[in-house]
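Entry 12.
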Amino acid sequence: MKKIVSATFTLIIFVVLMAKTANWFLNFNEEINQFLNVVMFSLIGLAYLVMAYVWDQRLLKLVIAICGIFLIAMNLVEKSITIDIIGIVCILTPMLVAKFQAENIFARR
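Predicted 3D structure (tokens):
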């Protein structure tokens, strides 16, 4: 079951990535582009929620889960510069946490 969910999630991410790339050449209309953005940010948020479940430390779980929830919830509110900046921070924070945690793990060995 886990493999099926993982494969489906990967396939959906790949389709959204290909659609976003095709948008550069085909110039989709605004509704399709907005739909792709909603799906893309929701998938990233969902991936961060799953990632938060994996971590052992409570603070890291909380930070990553909040970032995931915000990325999903930002699709429901009106767009503004502040929301966009917080969204960028929420995208980068879990990646930086994972990178520095991996460096700490390998440095201890």
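Annotation: The longest helix spans residues 81-108. The mean pLDDT is 89.
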